[in-house]
Amino acid sequence: MTSQKPKAESQSDEAEGPDGGWGWVLVGALFVSTSLVFGLMRSLGIFFVEFVHYFEESAQAISWISSTGLAAQQFFSPLGAALCNAYDARVVVMTGGCLAGLGLVLASQATCLVHLYLTMGLISGLGWGLVFTPMVATVMANFTRRRTLALGLAFSSIGLSSFAFNPLFQLLVEMYTWRGALLILGGLSLNILPCGALIRPRSRSKAPAPVDSEHTFSFSAALHRVSSYLELSLLWERPYVTYTMAITLLNVGYFVPYFHLVAHSRQVGFSEYQAAFVMSAAGTTDIFGRVVSGWFADLGHFRLIHVLSLWTTLAGVFIMLLPVSSLSGSYTGLVVISLLYGFCSGALTSVVFAAVPMVVGVERMMGGLGLLQLIESGAGLLGTPLSGLLKDITGNYIASFAVAGSFLILATFVMATLPHYFSCTDPPPPQRCSLDNKDKGLNPEMEQMNSLPSDTNHKEAEWSDR
């Protein structure tokens, strides 16, 4: 009987997690760094017209600049996760901040589009990929009960910075031309460095892992080590594959309104300002949706996967209703549905990331986030061309929005095939397989980040030593 008490206390402490304290400082760091990644990417459209006039290229050629940056950010996310597993998240994020700023500074000296593809697209995109996933994983490792709320508060910076950056960037272009504006944005991006510096470095294990000299330089050992850093073993686990498939389907339709809602509003007869206000209204409720969803999910009344299913289904339904609401020419109806869509689309984003530890376990959260972004990136790029093709075939956006919304609803059905989906309680998170346990000494930083002390006094001593 006496041996059960410490075990119960340990389980209680593990359920509580290290919520609060320095974790809220990291939430602020994620707030700033996310605004300097996605908020900046969303506002680069200000330079679109300037590039078209200066380089005298087609709109399609210019649009590949931002597309290359987004694709690079998602493509290099697994690399950022692997480097954090191998080394330290603090160093990786600060390196990413340097690359993000360097790419924009070099872009200010571009003389052709290829230079912009390589600088704003590839170099800055690589930097963004090294920043976002490690910062998100670091915040989630410091929260358990308030994890979704912490992510919701941090991700609200995307909407807020989009509103602030658009007029700011326009002012910079008018005052300093596009070259001077990009130079300033490069300096602004360097503020990611202090955000990364706020991640407390993890002390390495005192006793290094024993090394087998016969296998140190063997190809199979090196391949296994790389696989461990990338967490490639997740691709053979049914829960993770199912969850990734669901999020990939969600991504096919998620971005369609961002690209085509304004065009649809213009096509049905509303003015330019009315069409622009529809998207702004959706962006406003998107901010509230992220925070409210995080607060609601952390109440613990419902499982996180069920909350995600709810917001995904509602977002899909409202996407399908967007063209229907404007068929009668009612601008009020379109605005109302846009407000509801913006709220639900924002609400699901925080839960998508917060649910990853429930699927793969906290220990493999970093690699799981990186692989998830890599796989879902293709679907995000597929959805917009597909909706454009449907518009060209039918002559309107009704089919485009109907198909986009159906992909979100289909994602909910795929999530319903997860093991223990219909259970009222979360199953125990999976543990790293025995093969990976051999390499536990390879990433002591993440191991210490995700391990929880067994009692309160030990917890205080651990935090004071960092």
From TrEMBL:
Keywords: Cell membrane, Golgi apparatus, Membrane, Symport, Transmembrane, Transmembrane helix, Transport
One Pfam short name: MFS_1
Keyword Ligase found: no
Subcellular location: Cell membrane; Golgi apparatus membrane
Classification via InterPro entries: MFS, MFS_dom, MFS_MCT_13, MFS_trans_sf, Proton-linked_MCT
Basic and acidic residues bias (residue ranges): 456-466
Record membrane topology: Multi-pass membrane protein
CC terms in the record's Gene Ontology section: Golgi membrane; plasma membrane
Domain Major facilitator superfamily (MFS) profile: start-end pairs: 23-423
Superkingdom assignment: Eukaryota
Membership in a protein family: Belongs to the major facilitator superfamily. Monocarboxylate porter (TC 2.A.1.13) family.
Function: Proton-linked monocarboxylate transporter. May catalyze the transport of monocarboxylates across the plasma membrane.
PANTHER family assigned: MONOCARBOXYLATE TRANSPORTER, MONOCARBOXYLATE TRANSPORTER 13
UniProt-recorded name of the protein: Monocarboxylate transporter 13
Organism: Scomber scombrus
Organismal lineage: Eukaryota, Metazoa, Chordata, Craniata, Vertebrata
